[in-house]
Design a protein that fits this description.
single chain, Porin, 1 helix
C-alpha cells in the first residue's frame, strides 16, 4: 500500500473555464526516493485527451505507464467526465483500471458532486466518493466533503478525506488544501498541501498487523500558455511518509488545444 491514496485523482475546476473542443496533454514524471538504495526511483509518463462536445459536458481518456525500481512496470487506463446538470450542480466521474502490480489499483471509481451557491455561484460545497480495489485483498472506501471558493483570478479548495480500509475495517483520514492563482488562456499556478494518515492491515505478515503512517504531501504546479492553443506545464512535489521514505518529484509536459 502507498501514500498516494492521500492525493485525489483530479483537482476540479469549473467547466465554463474551458474554451477548447479538444485538448491533448502529454507529460512525464521523475521521482527520487530516499533512502534510494531501498526504494530507488520512479518514472512515469501519460497521455490525456479531453473532448468538449457541448458547453456543459467534457470527457477525457487517459493512459499512463509506470516504471519503478524494485516494483516493476505497470500501466493504467482511465475514463472520466465533467457534467453541468443545472446552474447550481455539476459532477465529476471517473473509472480507472491498472495492470497487475503492488502499487496500482485493479480498478478505481470516483464520483463527486459539486453545488454552486452564493449570489455569483462562486462558492462550491462538494461531496465525493471513491472505491479502490487493489490486486491483493485490500479495498478502500473513501468519502470526502469539501468546499471551493472561486474569486477573481484565484481559487481556494479544502477537502477532508475519510478512508476505511478492508480487511480489518481500519479507519484513517487526511486533509487537502489547494490554492490556485491565474487566468485561463494565460497561466495557472497551484499550491497543494495534503496531510494525514494512511492506515491498513498488513496481511503480508504471518500475523497481520495494523499499520498507521503519517504523511505530508506538497506540490507546486504551473500551466502556461505559449499561444492561444498551445502551452507547457510542470511541477515539483515532495512527499514524506513517516517511518517510510521521502520522495522528491518533478513533472513536465505540453498541451495543445484544437
Amino acid at each position: 500500500m502507498n501514500a498516494l491514496r492521500l492525493i485525489p485523482l483530479v483537482i476540479l475546476t469549473s467547466l465554463s473555464a474551458y474554451a477548447y473542443d479538444f485538448r491533448l496533454e502529454a507529460g512525464g514524471n521523475y521521482e527520487y526516493l530516499s533512502p534510494n538504495a531501498a526504494y530507488g526511483s520512479w518514472k512515469s509518463g501519460f497521455l490525456r485527451l479531453y473532448h468538449k462536445p457541448s458547453q456543459d459536458f467534457t470527457y477525457f481518456l487517459e493512459s499512463d505507464v509506470f516504471s519503478r525500481t524494485h516494483e516493476g512496470d505497470a500501466i493504467l487506463g482511465a475514463l472520466g467526465a465533467y457534467k453541468d446538470w443545472s446552474p447550481w450542480l455539476y459532477t465529476y466521474t471517473s473509472f480507472s483500471v491498472g495492470s497487475s502490480s503492488t502499487y496500482l489499483p485493479e480498478y478505481r471509481l470516483d464520483q463527486e458532486f459539486n453545488f454552486k451557491v452564493g449570489e455569483k455561484r462562486n462558492i462550491v460545497p462538494s461531496v465525493g466518493f471513491t472505491y479502490i480495489k487493489y490486486h491483493d485483498v485490500h479495498k478502500d472506501y473513501i468519502i470526502y466533503p469539501g468546499i471551493s471558493y472561486y474569486g477573481k483570478g484565484f481559487v481556494i479548495t479544502y477537502k477532508h478525506f475519510m478512508n476505511k480500509s478492508d480487511p480489518g475495517s481500519v479507519n484513517s483520514s487526511s486533509d487537502l488544501i489547494s490554492f490556485g492563482v491565474g487566468q485561463e488562456g494565460k497561466s495557472w499556478t497551484y499550491l497543494n498541501i495534503s496531510y494525514g494518515k494512511q492506515a491498513y492491515l498488513a496481511t503480508y505478515l504471518v500475523n497481520p498487523q495494523e499499520v498507521r503512517q503519517e504523511a505530508l504531501y506538497i506540490s507546486l504546479f504551473h500551466r502556461h500558455w505559449i499561444k492561444e492553443d498551445l502551452g507547457l506545464f510542470g511541477g515539483l512535489s515532495y512527499l514524506k511518509l513517516k517511518e517510510g521514505y521521502e520522495k522528491y518529484g518533478f513533472q513536465a509536459g505540453i498541451f495543445k488545444d484544437f
